């Protein structure tokens, strides 16, 4: 753990360089990395696919120390391109009743204080001279009690392994999310760890949930993060939130996710591995922008450039964990790529990685295995979430995404593409889809103009089975 912590501390020195590589554009991509300029990379059909999704004992996760959980959540970060934390204003959210709580005297400390105390502030200096005013968030346990109406049921928004998540309204009207550790996660936080928190809090990206601060008070441990107001991707795929997502929206979400993870992996010479990429860790904004949350298991990639992995206790979520990581306990950025591949299948099918309710045996229960088998047989259209509209353009795009998913989930991690490569591929899929849809709508308009008939898109049966022919 000590080694891990020391790795974390080196991040900020290279932060600016990493920032520079990140595009301010929403679904755009990396700067200096123009999606339009990418030639259609096509797909190399060389990977072999024999997914071996396995269960991970979730109980093992509860043994994770508070330190480890916090360390990681911290990557939940911020938008590099705005001067202020993008917290929701009161008028955008249901009001939260704040009432007084009796609390022990709380003293404030600055983020630079070296004294042990119960309040921790994160200050961020912005390099942009137009945004010279650095901002500093200060939080006390008492304030958070008030902001959450004393951790009322009404303000409870979720429950995870770390603890309970609450919505909180700060005095300035901002809305944030507060993760309150269950007491078993308690423990004293060292100065070293506080310093680490300060460091990791500087990892910022539009598609990462911002870390705002933390509070340590008696046996209470609170992590304060940006509130993202439109539920998790899993809730949307389950249909418990919002309208059914169309494929183009899912593709945009995948691209947001790939940007966030590629950013972490490309974080200077000390990449960060998320380790728990899953649909319930993807939060959506009202505009369906995705933000990757919960660095619950994050840790840094190998510090030594010659080292190819870090050895670690296997952690993650059943169905998403890289089988090679499970087998060897050796973690690389390609373990995140595996989880991302599973997530791609989830986006296309709408199903969870493990569908316990679907009959006996592995036939349909292991979604990735099932879906890729269907694709290899030429039935990509069958695996599509039935709530999505199907056109030939969409089916063609789905096929490409499924091929990428097959590559990402290749048993041999050396065969898996880097996240940056995944981004390039998804950009090209989106570009092709948009062009195809524009052509179709132009043809439709033209057809109506000339003869009054409506445009009939090509049959979806014209699947390009050859895409999958080399996938085993
Ligand atoms: N920043 C946030 N903004 C809005 N809602 C959030 C936020 N963070 C978490 N939530 C809600 O709280 C729930 C629990 O989140 P948490 O990160 O603690 O656990 P989880 O990711 O669902 O599971 P696990 O602990 O296994 O990672 C989420 O599913 C989500 O509904």
UniProtKB/TrEMBL annotation:
Coiled coil: none
Assigned EC number: 2.7.11.1
Gene Ontology MF terms: ATP binding; protein kinase activity; protein serine/threonine kinase activity
Region (Disordered): 20-46, 85-131, 437-472
Residue ranges constituting the Protein kinase domain according to the UniProt record: 151-428
InterPro entries found in the cross-reference section: Kinase-like_dom_sf, Prot_kinase_dom, Protein_kinase_ATP_BS, Ser/Thr_kinase_AS
Keyword Protease: no
Alphabetical GO biological process terms: signal transduction
Catalysed conversion reaction: L-threonyl-[protein] + ATP = O-phospho-L-threonyl-[protein] + ADP + H(+); L-seryl-[protein] + ATP = O-phospho-L-seryl-[protein] + ADP + H(+)
Protein name per the record: non-specific serine/threonine protein kinase
């Amino acid at each position: 753990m000590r080694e891990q912590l020391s790795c974390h501390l080196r991040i900020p020195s290279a932060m600016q360089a990493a920032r520079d590589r990140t595009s301010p554009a929403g679904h755009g991509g990396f700067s200096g990395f123009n999606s339009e300029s990418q030639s259609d990379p096509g797909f190399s059909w060389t990977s072999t696919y024999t997914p071996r999704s396995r269960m991970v004992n979730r109980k093992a996760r509860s043994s994770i120390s508070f330190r480890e959980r916090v360390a990681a959540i911290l990557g939940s970060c911020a938008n590099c391109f705005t001067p202020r934390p993008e917290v929701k204003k009161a008028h955008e959210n249901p009001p939260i009743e704040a009432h007084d709580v009796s609390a022990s005297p709380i003293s404030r400390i600055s983020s630079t204080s070296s004294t042990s105390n119960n309040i921790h502030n994160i200050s961020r200096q912005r390099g942009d001279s137009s945004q010279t005013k650095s901002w500093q968030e200060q939080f006390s346990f008492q304030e958070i009690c008030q902001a959450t109406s004393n951790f009322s049921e009404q303000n409870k928004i979720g429950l995870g392994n770390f603890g309970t998540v609450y919505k909180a309204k700060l005095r300035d009207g901002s809305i944030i999310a507060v993760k309150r550790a269950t007491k078993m996660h308690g423990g004293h936080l060292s100065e070293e760890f506080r310093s680490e928190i300060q460091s990791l809090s500087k990892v910022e990206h539009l598609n990462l949930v911002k870390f705002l601060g933390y509070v340590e008070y008696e046996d209470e441990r609170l992590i304060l993060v940006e509130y993202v107001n439109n539920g998790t991707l899993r809730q949307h795929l389950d249909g418990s939130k919002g309208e059914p997502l169309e494929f183009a929206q899912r593709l945009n979400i995948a691209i947001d996710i790939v940007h966030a993870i590629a950013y972490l992996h490309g974080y200077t010479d000390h990449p960060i591995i998320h380790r728990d990429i899953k649909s319930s860790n993807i939060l959506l904004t009202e505009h369906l922008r995705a933000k990757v949350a919960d660095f619950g298991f994050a840790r840094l990639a190998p510090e030594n450039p010659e080292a190819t992995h870090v050895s670690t206790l296997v952690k993650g979520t059943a169905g998403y964990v890289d089988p090679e990581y499970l087998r060897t306990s050796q973690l690389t950025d390609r373990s995140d790529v595996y989880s991302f591949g599973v997530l791609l299948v989830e986006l296309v099918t709408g199903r969870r990685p493990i569908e316990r309710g679907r009959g006996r045996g592995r036939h349909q229960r292991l979604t990735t295995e099932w879906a890729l088998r269907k694709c290899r047989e030429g039935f990509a259209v069958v695996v599509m979430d039935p709530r999505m509209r199907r056109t030939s353009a969409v089916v063609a795009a789905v096929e490409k995404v499924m091929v990428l998913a097959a590559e990402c989930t290749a048993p041999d991690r050396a065969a898996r593409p880097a996240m940056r490569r995944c981004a390039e591929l998804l950009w090209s899929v989106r570009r092709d889809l948009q062009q195809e849809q524009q052509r179709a709508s132009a043809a439709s308009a033209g057809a109506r103009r000339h003869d009054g008939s409506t445009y009939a898109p090509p049959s979806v049966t014209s699947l390009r089975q050859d895409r999958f022919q080399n996938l085993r």
